[in-house]
């Protein structure tokens, strides 16, 4: 794999400081002026003007008159009454998935199976005969009958074309008979794959619904995505991200092949934002990190130094591993996707390679297993320096809530998951366990750092929805009035910090991005409204007027 | 002093648990039902019904149907659409001062010296000849000329009657010539009292303005307040508190004489709320605590186990001790009211007596001295168990902000101070130091517990104003738009916790009050609106419909 530098953290940072300070000397300077610049820098929370050089390094912040005097020949950008904030960083998304969503049938917000079939028929019109019909985003909780669909629901409309439809959370898939036909192993009987489940009828025949690891049975047999499609998906995904004000994304699960696609884009300067890639499990990408050292592309927009693992499944499909059975399914406690000893082995391997670990954990058992494994691997000597993360950290036992902070474990959470799940989450786990769910404030109170994100395309890539959900805990209609479990709301400032400085910290990037401070990169957004001044209800309709990365616009609204 | 029990913390708590559980057995039970009960209990944040016995102990919380079934013979109180919350606790007020304010000329919000004189003339009509005319609440920052007034401003109107007028912050007083005449020592010359300042003109004559300890020169010579007046002031102050939804007050500076007045009221069951009294410095009350042990009245409404000290003065009068000179008075760095070695001596004495220390500190130097003294006195072995407090913790150096949490020091802060001071606070300390001022969020982020209060009568006793200021950092008109330093705003839940559970913790009372949990006391308020559901702008006009202490109404709105 080309482009890996033989370096560990210290060297990477040293190199970047040299690179950032080089162009300052005789550089062309831009002075940006705004109604208000929220820097997210504690020592100087606000400014009216910011100077940066044409290499994209911030030179100074302050009053307009002072900066114009200091840089009399500077190019001037005045955004008028607009507010400037650091570029938003989504600490957990799936860029290829976001791009692919545009190449797949969108089943989000379907209200019935009939609705699904109608969308599939429309989408299939443009597909060549025999090509797989891929879709994503269905959620049986949105349908009248609320139970899992079957292959039979699809077979009448699609007797020959394979159809494969991921659930909204990505933890279950619904296939037709043509899709199941590609699996070599007989899907009938009573066997189950490790960490997954094939749903079967009373006769032992598969119903067409596959949970977690069982999805691999079909997906590993599907025709592979070619390099061009991969690049196209990444480009589409990144474009969508910058249009929403993102200047950085932590891509939660990137294969070596995908990383190579990113590298080609980075070499061609075709990456509009920064991607912090996490290697997808104990595979080729992790091995490359262990062999060659932590990776950063010289252009500063691509990095891989983290590992993404899955401890369990999702709550919607009852795949999240719970300490006690589900409140609405007493025979089921969910699934651990990795055995504790396997989690220990891989986290130890990552630690020894200097690689940050970020593990998906939704259920209270999933989270406990991860905390146990992290505590074992990190030991008691400055565990916080590793900055290991729990992705989602969705439902925690009250006894585990205070365990993150002393380990320095970052909670990488997605505010919109709370507001998407709130109609049924308490059905799943009951009134006692729900108290430790989506518990942003309780985690903050225990000293845990929150890195915020969206989990796009599971949720919308739009970070405004995350800022809104974090501060209101309400849906788009403002319901429930006053918010769901309002005690766990964040302030607008905390929400913004979760999408900027604390997300940067979670990616070891707080010395370069996440706040607007001399020496850091000029990654920022221009907003018509001031997100810290308007009522939180207005955060979901903020107008993103422009997105800048390294001092250059990567998106500008057309109005 | 009667009523002191020979006990230390452990015994006091043991006794109170026995007392609280005694009446449960055959007690008359009340079931209260409401639209929503915010318990402030993490394990069960909300309920619809609460049962308590006629001893005032909470028996159960839950769904209405379940509690009515459990207590079929219970008296029923249904507050309809109203919301119930734990009774509010003001962690820093001055009850006698609040009551006395009704016995003194009110000079708050005077717009000029002429305005002051008019109010004094009106007030003096009811006074007997020769009686002192006392007033409080003036603030020269509200006047056109913004400099300190003089005795001459008063002498024409009051040539013979002594006039003594405290500044709004209580850290300066303005007297006329008749008032200065009672001081035996010659006030002319160039001498100054320790920890205070007599303002003098070019000829060395006193102008009539006395700062901090200099106020004692006049006040110690004034005729003493008699016992009847003291009791009357306490009763007036407590009545005003419960009318605003307070069920507890930490009285920040209570003399032995005042404590005795409280004890007489407690004996007569004439205390409508709980008072956590702090001994007023190294005097008779502290000596009594050291001699007789921590004090709690058997009725559960009066306690003294803390010591109030003053490290420095106030910001408005530039008496707060700063590490560097004031930005608007380069020759002045404020005043330390206690030398470091004196602070060490008294804090060590308090520690050895098992007494909690609560020290007023406004300036960054004042706060640093207190942290230094606390660190020295508490040592490194579980300092948090002492729960020592800094009162106001108003301006902290960035290096001191993170020092509170590891010492377990509680920041006892008054949200309305921020919104009262915001028009001029940055003039006093400049743009760099203002960042560490009124820094609620930064303190929370560092793990510090915030106990909230008002400092009444310096600010209004109305805790709704504190909830509003904490969540908006704006004045009554909502200005500045979006709030002053919005990054330090609290959520409504955090603000409510600061006025309930965390205030209770600051008074070692979280096992008895501060949240609604079986076994705790039924101290609660009934609010027309849900404070966690309405926009923060509505918090200042919440309707307090009733205040209950020990399960009995101590205030009910007349509508």
Description:
The structure is a homodimer of 559-residue chains. The first copy, chain A, is α/β, with parallel strands linked by helices and 559 residues long. The first copy, chain A, has 2 domains: 123 residues, Diaminopimelate Epimerase, Chain A, domain 1; 285 residues, Metal-dependent hydrolases (TIM Barrel), CATH 3.20.20.140. Helices cover 30% and strands 22% of the residues of chain A. In chain A, helix 3 packs across helix 8 and helix 14 crosses helix 17. Chain A is globular, with a radius of gyration of 23 Å. The two termini of chain A are 43 Å apart. Chains A and B meet through helix 16 and helix 18 of A and helix 16 and helix 18 of B. Chains A, B: Keywords: Signal.
Short key terms for the protein model shown above:
homodimer; 559 residues; alpha/beta; Diaminopimelate Epimerase, Chain A, domain 1; TIM Barrel; nine-stranded mixed sheet; 19 helices; 30% helix; disordered N terminus; Metal_Hydrolase (chains A, B); Metal-dep_hydrolase_composite (chains A, B); Amidohydro_3 (chains A, B); hydrolase activity, acting on carbon-nitrogen (but not peptide) bonds (chains A, B)
């Amino acid at each position: 794999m080309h482009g890996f530098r033989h370096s560990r953290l210290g060297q990477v940072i040293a190199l970047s400081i040299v690179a950032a300070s080089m162009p300052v000397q005789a550089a062309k300077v831009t002075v940006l002026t705004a109604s208000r610049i929220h820097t997210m820098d504690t020592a100087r929370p606000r400014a009216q003007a910011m100077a940066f050089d044409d290499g994209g390094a911030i030179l100074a912040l302050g009053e307009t008159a002072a900066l114009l005097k200091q840089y009399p020949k500077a190019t001037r950008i005045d955004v008028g009454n607009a507010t400037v904030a650091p570029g938003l960083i989504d600490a957990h998304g799936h860029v290829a998935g976001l791009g692919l969503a545009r190449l797949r049938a969108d089943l989000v917000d379907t209200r019935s199976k009939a609705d699904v079939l109608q969308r599939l028929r429309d989408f299939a019109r443009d597909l060549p005969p025999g090509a797989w019909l891929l879709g994503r985003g269905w959620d049986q909780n949105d349908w009248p009958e609320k139970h899992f669909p079957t292959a039979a629901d699809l077979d009448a409309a699609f007797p020959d074309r394979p159809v494969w439809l991921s659930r909204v959370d990505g933890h279950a898939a619904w296939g037709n008979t043509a899709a199941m036909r590609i699996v070599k192993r007989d899907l009938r009987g009573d066997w189950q794959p490790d960490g997954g489940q094939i749903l079967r009828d009373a006769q032992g025949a598969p119903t067409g619904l596959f949970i977690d690891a069982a999805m691999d049975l079909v997906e590993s047999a599907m025709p592979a995505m070619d390099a061009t499609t991969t690049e196209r998906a990444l480009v589409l995904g990144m474009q969508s991200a910058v249009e929403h004000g993102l200047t950085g994304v932590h891509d939660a699960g990137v294969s070596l092949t995908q990383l190579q696609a990113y590298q080609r884009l980075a070499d061609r300067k075709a990456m509009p934002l920064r991607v912090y890639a996490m290697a997808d499990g104990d595979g080729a990408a992790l091995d490359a990190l262990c062999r060659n050292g932590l990776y950063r592309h010289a252009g500063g927009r691509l990095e891989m130094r983290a590992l993404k693992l899955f401890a369990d499944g999702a709550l919607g499909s009852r795949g999240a591993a719970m300490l006690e059975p589900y409140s609405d399914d007493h025979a089921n406690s969910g699934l651990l996707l990795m055995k504790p000893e396997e989690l220990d082995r891989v986290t130890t391997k990552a630690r020894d390679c200097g690689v940050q670990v970020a593990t998906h954990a939704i259920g209270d058992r999933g989270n406990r297993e991860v905390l146990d494994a992290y505590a074992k691997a990190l030991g008691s000597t400055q565990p916080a320096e590793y900055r290991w993360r729990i992705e989602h950290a969705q439902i925690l036992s009250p006894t585990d809530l205070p365990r993150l902070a002393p380990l320095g474990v970052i909670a990488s959470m997605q505010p919109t998951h709370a507001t998407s799940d709130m109609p049924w989450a308490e059905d799943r786990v009951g009134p006692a366990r729900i108290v430790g769910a989506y518990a942003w404030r309780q985690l903050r109170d225990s000293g845990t750092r929150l890195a915020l994100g969206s989990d796009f395309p599971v949720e919308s890539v739009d970070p405004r929805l995350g800022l809104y959900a974090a501060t209101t805990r309400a849906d788009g209609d403002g319901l429930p009035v006053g918010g769901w479990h309002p005690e766990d709301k964040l302030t607008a400032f905390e929400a913004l910090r979760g999408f900027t400085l604390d997300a940067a910290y979670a990616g070891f990037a707080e010395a370069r991005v996440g706040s607007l401070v001399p020496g850091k990169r000029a990654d920022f957004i221009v907003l018509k409204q001031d997100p810290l001044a308007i009522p939180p209800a207005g955060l979901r309709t903020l107008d993103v007027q422009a997105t800048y990365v390294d001092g250059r616009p990567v998106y500008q609204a057309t109005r």
